[in-house]
User: Fold these one by one.
Assistant:
Number 1:
Amino acid sequence: MQDFSFIPNNEYILLTPGPLSTSKRVRAAMLKDLCTWDKDYNFIVQDIRQRLLSISNLSQDYTTILMQGSGSFAVESVITTALGNGYKLLILINGEYGRRIEQIAKISGIPHISKSVEECEIITPQLIREALRDNTITHVVLVHCETTTGILNPLESLCKEIKQHNKILIIDAMSSFGGIPIEIENLGIDFLISSANKCIQGAPGFGFIIAKKERMEQLKGNAKSLSLDMYAQWECMENHAGKWRFTSPTHVVMAFREALLELESEGGIEIRHKRYAQMQKVLSERMEDIGYQCYIDKKYHSPIITTFCYPDSNFFSFHDMYEYLKCRHFVIYPGKLSQADTFRIGNIGDIYLSDIERLLGLIQAYNQGVQVQSKS
């Protein structure tokens, strides 16, 4: 029998891009068992769908679809349903999650072209303009906040360029929706994808899509998957008052509704964005003072997650620092870059500036220990 005695009783503060630290009220919402067929549960699903529109200031020209699985399931459901015969996708890439969309297109046999820039660079309107000389392209997809590095692509200028070419626009807002204001309707976004366990601060278990109704109405029969058929899921939710086609993650759905209420009580997306941005600013500035340089230019930083380079020391070990912090109830994130040694620290979730200050104190203490070791 395995020994699980090492599992701590104290809670971790998760400084990751999801799953992340959730509040007690969100976790408490999962303590009730509900039936997926029950009208009371389906009412909650419908309430969630409407609240997602409300917090985004969207008209009834938009609709929402909830989809079981991680955020990548929701992305795949959009890509494999929105593009039928005769369509071609432009994939804009500056990180791992753009590459994941490329994988989805390849495996699904969706005609596509990819345009990439370095992971430390933003996607630009010029790159889009040049790519759209191919007039067979019908759809464009990009990642708003690339958690590979924490870089934030300039959504307003990119959307403007794409819509000037009358292309259908898909935005992976996995790590930005709910934590960064996005004018979905004004920007002409056709499909926006996010997840329960990101900036809304719920638990992992499903993703969601905010979509133009007129686009959804054109998608019947397009899907290349049974379970991930976005149109069929939407049709079922529309026609059966919030019912999911297959078993839904009921406890996670309850937590997500509570997280939406929590977001509203905090003051909405703009107020949450200010909290995240303040923590990220303090984190990045103080980390550089301690000796950890940011991987990307500060002007490209998102308020979601920050990538730091390993310091110039033969004695530094990410594993050792990770364990040092974990023993003190903070969990950070390894890097995802192949060409540089980095690690990442997120600051989304039910965390506050006081938590970041405590983390910085611990990292400074760890760093001083490494310096003493290097001199001995």
Note: The chain has twelve helices and 14 strands.
Number 2:
Amino acid sequence: MQNFTYFTPTKVVFGKNSESQVGKLVKEQNCKKVLVHFGGQSAKKSGLLDRIFDSLKAEQIDFISLGGVKPNPLLSLVEEGIELCKAEKVDFILAVGGGSVIDSAKAIGYGLANDFPVWDIYSRKNKPAACTPIGAILTIAAAGSEMSDSSVITNDKTLEKIGFSSNYCRCRFAVMNPELTESLSEWQTMSGATDIIMHTLERWFTAKGTENSILVDSIAAGLVKTVMANAPVLLKNPKDYNARAEIMWASSLSHNGLTGPFGNGDWASHQIEHELGGMFDVTHGAGLAAVWASWARFVYKENEERFCQMGTDMLGLTKNKGESNGDFALRAIAGMEGFFKSIKMPVNMEDLGLKLSDEQCEILAENCTWHGKRTVGTVKKLGREELAEIYKMARKAEAGR
């Protein structure tokens, strides 16, 4: 087993009505003023914000609020939040929503705690020395940002979507009530399920010879199978509490390092999708489903055995007599692609509603490499030419591919 450091400091409060404890949880942080950060109107209409405000008032905690977070959180709103927090002397940020809201809160926290433009952190021009403390109340199971060290922000001027990771931004606590996800649309729920699977697959696929331990692989496979078993349940019955609870907990565990603590994951599919999100504002999980199979078919020969293991451990496939590793790997890729189709997710750009030109594919690839400054991926290192080819492959399903 490889050496690793595992750090998960987030306190989790899970279950029905758990949001009623938020006032006490915030009070434990010894803060003076809170920014309640949220997305659209659903938190208001559902009464969730009112319940949160009442809980804060009951503990005599002063607060202000800022809504308007988009599915791909924007730098402009982050900058607005930073200025608001400075003016109001905010010292704690409470994110109410999903990964986008939490990511936006983390960016505000960075901007508030450091004396340079927050985009300098994401563009790697400067390093943060701190982050204002953050807590989260989840309303969607997807990103796992409540227990991760990462956040992703879209610069709405340049259309770049870039992530940054550090332990400074880890949430102090995360409140998870699966009932709060019942108002989500089918599309949002299945996109979230896809995101959870992808967070696990990104850690599963590594450069040949750097695979994870038996224990970690077993946890990862069990998590993916849990999501694959419960997502179809929610297609039939969106009110099934147990299915929502299983998926919500899987969401956090998929992105807190438990399914791959060695730092050797691939993450190319996420980088490829980030550029789609920045340019076209696509739903993150759906975008991942649209590009994953093309990435997999482009790189599988670099580590056929790992794709075969995905087929056996996650999909329950059996290798046929005389079947080569390559053919079985391709069958496993088709199997995962088939699952995404079964939960009504797109598996190519056309399904996603995009018709990319060659020029757009080249621009996306250029942005993905940070204008030639990096490659992405570990299974196979991908530069501009390779990334452009993957974007082109993902445009439309090809017979016999």
Note: The chain has 16 helices and eight strands.
Number 3:
Amino acid sequence: MDNIPKAKVGIVAVSRDCFPESLAVNRRKALVEAYKKKYDAEDIYECPICIVESEIHMVQALEDIKKAGCNSLCVFLGNFGPEISETLLAKHFDGPKMFVAAAEESQDDLMDGRGDAYCGMLNASYNLKLRNVGAYIPEYPVGDAEDCADMINEFLPIARAVIGLSNLKIISFGPRPMNFLACNAPIKQLYNLGVEIEENSELDLFESFKNHENDKRIPDVVKDMEADLGAGNKKPGILAKLAQYELTLLDWINEHKGYRKFTCIAGKCWPAFQTQFHFVPCYVNSRLTGRGIPVSCEVDIYGALSEYIGTCISEEAVTLLDINNTVPRAMYDEFIKEDFIPEDK
């Protein structure tokens, strides 16, 4: 998937200065080791420059994880943690962030080895709300090294989606077909998510398609489609037109995405599309979707957005399907009903 981001999480341990700093250091090391044993080591970066106990440390850690190329943040409470500094770290980090905390490790060491990170997490949550800072906090955010490693891995899909939306441009062609109010998409809500939108006329798309009529790349795309379809290539005569359309969309994306890194498309497939382009675009749409560039039908802008979010989360091709009809009773009785009979009957 070339059209979705890869999340790299900077793990920054924090410590309240009335607790031993070694608690946060050792627990951070254990967390990183546990993650690398179970998951891809490239997902994370261990901030070694300091344990954040003050605002100065916060600035140092922030600069370090930015320099390391981190686009996501995990604030790890090795002990109670400094409420102000840790929430300022989240506030000033430009990207998705999460908070997790270390559980107590041994019943034999609840004096010097006690960290109170559970209580610190409650205070961190309150401080984040006071500052209007959005951060992901797992349902139960306190655990040992392995637990916290799992929490960070579960955060990755969320991080990809947040990063993707902040760098996404949706390209649409034409208004919705008549009677498709279900595809209504107020633009303001896209801006609220950090998504850009470029709305175009179908006539602009048609002109660009015509300009690609003798594109020298068409034969190569046709060959790729033939290999893709295999025995399913039932109408080979239409492939040149489909290849022409695919190149039109890809060139439009490259020329119009501007400063955004990622794109998706909200297009149309009827009624005028078939009579003017002389084909339906479904196959081309699916090819782009398979590359991580979702293409929704009937200028369903929110649908394209939903597909893109699903792609970021799953790292798989995502599409929306209509529930067009019910199942006839006879079909249900003959082919489906038996599959739903309880085994004990």
Note: The longest strand covers residues 9-14.
